[in-house]
Amino acid sequence: MVQSYLKHGPTQVPLIIRHRKYASDPLFQAFGVVCSSSSNSVFDGKLAYVPALEDVLVWDQISMWHETGHREEVTCIVQSPQSDSFAVGYADGSIRLWSASTTSVLTTFNGHKKSVTTLAFDETGTRLASGSQDTDVILWDVVAEAGLYRLRGHRDQITAIQFLSVSEGQPSTSTSTAPALLLTSSKDTFMKLWDLTTQHCVQTIVAHRSEIWSLAINQEQNLIFTGSGEGELKVWKINHETLAKGLKETESGEVAKMIESVSSLPLASKHRVSQIKFHSTQPYFAVQSHDRSVEIFRIRTEEEVRKKQARRKKRSVEKKRQEQTKARGPKAGEVVIEDDKEETMETSLVEFFTPHLVVRASGKIRSFDFGSNQPSSKGIAQILVALASNALEVYNIPHPTKSKDEPPEATRNYSVDIPGHRTDVRTLCLSSDDQILSSASNGSLKIWNMKTTQCIRTMECGYAICSTFLPGDRHIAVGTKSGEILIYDISSSTLIETIKAHTATVWSMHVRADGEALVTGSADKDVKFWSLEHKAATEDSVQSGKLLSLVHIRTLKMSDDVLSVRYSPNSKFLAVALLDSTVKVFYQDSLKFFLSLYGHKLPVLSMDISDDSKLIVTCSADKNVKIWGLDFGDCHKSIFAHEESIMQVAFEKDSHYFWTVGKDKMLKYWDGDKFEGIQKLEGHHGEIWALALSRHGNFVVTGSHDKSIRVWEKLDEPLFLEEEREKELEKLYESGIADTLNRVDAPIGNDAGGAINGTTEVEAATVSKQTAETLMAGERIMEAIELADTEREMFREYEEAMSKLSENDAMRMQPPARNPVLAAYDLEPEAYVLRVVEKVPSTALQDALLVLPFGNVVTLMVYLNIWAQKGWNITLVSRIIFFVLKTYHHQIVANRIMRTTLIPLRKHLRLALQKQKEVISYNLAALYFIRRKNDSERTAQFYEEENMDEEKVKARIAEGKKRKRVNLRA
């Protein structure tokens, strides 16, 4: 009989939040993350939308945007002008449009081959532009849920995108109804201006000597600010007159420049300008050019600048008068006035944009955003700062003061840092009842409730390396990098004792099975044994009663640094792993040498002994796991387990199954008897440092460099190794096919040139990307077409045979049995094909059609003709027809057989489209009629009730149109 195992997966835990609306929504959650550093954050004045690895968190903790099965990291977030909609870019090149109110995905765009680096909506929110590490810019139609075109020209990662609004009178060779300009910047030092109506780059500017990291346009859309890697902030002017005229030559024969250089603004720091942002309603803009601070500039009006110039002019006149009075006498002032009339003071850019204040955060800043929609009660602007240390801070920006003695300072209003660690999670341990989890990092020790995943205690500590719950689950011992053992009392959240145990890092500690002793191993080459004793609390102690303490009993000197120590469950042996890659096994009572386990090429970082004390498993920096017999010290098996160093290993209770975690971001499950890998679990986005197993084997907890803690629960679903291997092979095969179809011969990145195989690269191209989903959708369409063709052919042959016989002929037969699939759905063959095509997501339809061989395309045209004739889903039919004709134009033109299909298709489609047009026209006319009727009734009502004249009535109606709509709830 084939052995089966139980599958493990991400734990489904409830998200505890304030709003009852979401309280019952179960979500797959990685807890301990406040804000990851993979993406920018968005702040609307009330809520902060921040990346949390593969999810998006909405603070103040009202929801989490999670898509089941998707594990790629969030790399970019932008809010649409339609405020409920957000575009989120991911590391795999996909873009998802999320609805904030329903926390669900509206649509998914796949077009980029590398991670999305920047996103931008146009003014109406109907078009979305995306830039990526693959150097391409793609324009998406949000309404039609399709990619419009791909713009190529940059030679390195796209860093910023901005839409420029265009006057309706601008000349253009295109018939597009939405003219616009797009401004892009890249690490290739270029800034490009694209005309979206012609899909062509109209100007390329070498903006900086180094990479352009940020770009912003002011509210009036006449100035562009760009920031470079060298800390330079340049200002460019947009010439709207030239934009209105289009590409025209000047008298000198040169093409007029649409963007011209103005000057540069001085910054307080010379570090990389990583972000520039304008406030949407108040006269501020901010620049981040330092790791820990954001510089806020105030935008002055022309009137303020003129007043300042006048004051400066007046002061200079008075100064000169005083100087000349001292030198020549009282009549010298007349000369100054005459000279002053000839002086002209030019308005500089620095006078319009003046430094206001500097916001200094408590950690390294990843991104910032202004709270634009809802300013505070006093009209003070707010700025959200997302830190790379897994924290958020909101600062108030005060109004400028006239006093020079007290410069304005930003005050911190809110901060979110308790629910997560500032640094890597280095050690985890679980209480004996699996109810409480302890996690420690460099600087903090946190206690978590495993049912709610809420942080219930936070205590300061040193650089924690290892930890364990002491018997009774009321105290935790933490080993630090400085060689100390810190003992904490959980109930009072206090450090009750600090023991200077070692002179170097405490790498490992373990409590003996009987709970009477603790062993520690350190880099000072000592293994120390400690007895657990209770002592009376002192008068200064916060806690009353007995306190747990460690008393040093004896020391075992080793020849090298001790990396791991472990008692056997039967308390007979003690295993010690050394820096020389060996493991020494001693009798724990007498400390006599028993075995030496030699075989690893690099140091053993962790080990564990099975509950029956028969097997010991060791994991090493050489990426191997070795399983040894504890009776003779023989190596049962050596397994190449991970792609990087294996950080920790642990046996499951009462079994020979064990878990390993490594720097390759993987958690793996193994059978220690059959020496086979059972399951690989992906989820973390950084090295996994820590592992903790529940005492009952129900779940596994992992802690990582990405500052997240993940719980993997044992499910009721059985797992068969052969099926898992087949699934892995299928996944590998599908991804291989997709990669082959998406392969581009042009290099990507700094070496990307403008030519492929000696030909000039096309500036605008179609948007397509094959994924496993599009390949499956294409296969489903092919299967549906073949099934329908078989069914139609069978009935056609039957009807032909019956037509040759008379009605009373004895040879007449019953019609053949229908296909079971068609009979189950009770559909005709052509209706079934339409059903399959309709189920393909709109964004994946074009890529799915590209999978079809030309033979299936010819057959599909026959079905398109039938659908057009019957008037089924004309919108979808039109979209498919236009895409197929554009894609397979050369084959269709060369194929004479297609003529018999295309002529009736043209006729039927025109009739169907004409009917659609008539329906829309009728509905529009009805809506216009209703509006006119409503206006006339309101006008008559005003005349009758309030005795107004015509002008007052029009004003009242105009006021009514401006009123906001309010949704009332019962």
UniProtKB/TrEMBL annotation:
Pfam families: Beta-prop_WDR3_1st, Beta-prop_WDR3_2nd, Utp12. Its main location: nucleus. It comes from the Eukaryota. Keywords: Nucleus, Repeat, WD repeat. Residues 829-931 form the Small-subunit processome Utp12 domain. GO terms for biological process: maturation of SSU-rRNA. WD repeats lie at residues 67-108, 109-142, 181-204, 205-246, 418-458, 499-540, 597-638, 639-671, 681-713. Residues 308-318 have a biased composition (Basic residues). This is Small-subunit processome Utp12 domain-containing protein. It is found in: Nucleus, Nucleolus. GO terms for molecular function: snoRNA binding. PANTHER family: WD REPEAT CONTAINING PROTEIN 3 WDR3 (PTHR19853), WD REPEAT-CONTAINING PROTEIN 3 (PTHR19853:SF0). Belongs to the WD repeat WDR3/UTP12 family. GO terms for cellular component: Pwp2p-containing subcomplex of 90S preribosome; small-subunit processome. Residues 305-332 are annotated as: Disordered.
